[in-house]
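USER: My hope is that you can spare some time for a protein that puzzles me. I am handing you a single protein, as its sequence and its fold in C-alpha cell form. Walk me, if you will, through where the backbone shape changes along the chain. The protein I mean follows directly.
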Amino acid sequence: MAHSTLTRPVGAAPLRPAKTISPSARAWLFLTPSMLFLGVLIAASLLVLRMSVGTKGAEWSGFSLASYAQLLEPYYLKSLLLTLRLALVSALIAVLLATPVGYCMSRLQSPLLRRVFLAAVLMPLLVNLLLQSYGWLVILGPGGMLNQALLGLGLIDRPVMLLYNQTGVLMGLVQTAFPLAVLPIASAMRGVARSYEEAAATLGASRLQVFRQVVLPMSLPGIITGATLVFAYNASSFVVPLLLGGRRVPMLAVMVHDQIAPLMNWPAASAAGVVLIVTTLAIMTFSEFVTGRRRRILEASQ
C-alpha cells in the first residue's frame, strides 16, 4: 500500500517554532505573588516608620523624634528588656523541649507514626491563639486544674498564683511557639546520616554520647533556626501576655496596644513597633550569621 505524505505548497513561508517562555521569565512569574505580598509588607513598614516620626494629631505632616526619646524613659526601657528576656528564655526552653521530640520524629521509620507525630506537633498552630490562652486561664487559675491536682496530691497547702505574672506568660509563650522549634530541629536531625551514628557506636560511644557529640553538633544550624523563630514570634506576642499577664507583665506589644486603643497616640505606638522590629531583625541577622558559619564548617569537615 502506498503511503501518502503531506507536503507544503511551493513558496509557502517556513514554519516557525512556537514561542516558549524563558526559564528566567518563568521564575519571575512564579515569584510574582510572593513579591507582591512582600511589597505590601514593605509599604506598610515604611508607613509605620513615617508615622513614628510624626506628632500626635499630625502623624503625616509633622516631624519629631519625641516618640523615640520617650522610649528612653525607665518604664519603656523596662518593657523592652522584659520583652527581649521573656522571648529569649521562652526560645531556650522551647528548644530544650523540642530537641528530643525532633530527634524522635527524625528517627521514626513508620510513615503513619511520622504523620501522627507531625499532627500532634502542629496542633497548637491549628487552634486559635485566643482559645489556647483561655485554656491556660482554666489550667493555671487559682481554682484551675493544675492547682487542684497539686492540692489533691498534697504537694501544696494553698493555690499557687500562676496567672498575671511572668511564670504564666512564659508557659503560654513556650506552648504556643513550640511547633516553630520542633520542625527545623527535626529537619536538621533528619539530615544527619545514620552512618555517623553507627561509626560512633562502633568506636564504643554510648547512645547518649552519640547524641551529644554527633547528632547535636551536626544539627546546630537547625537548633539555632528554631530558637530564632521562637524568639521572633514571642517578641511580638500580644494575646498571651495580655490575657495571662494582664497589665502586670507589660511586654512591648501590649504597650503598643495601649498607646493606640485608649490614647490614640499613633506616633508613640509606631516608634515602639519600629524599635521592636529593628531589635528583632538585628538578633535574627546575628543568628543567621552564626548558623551560616556553622553550616560552612560542617560542609568543610565532610
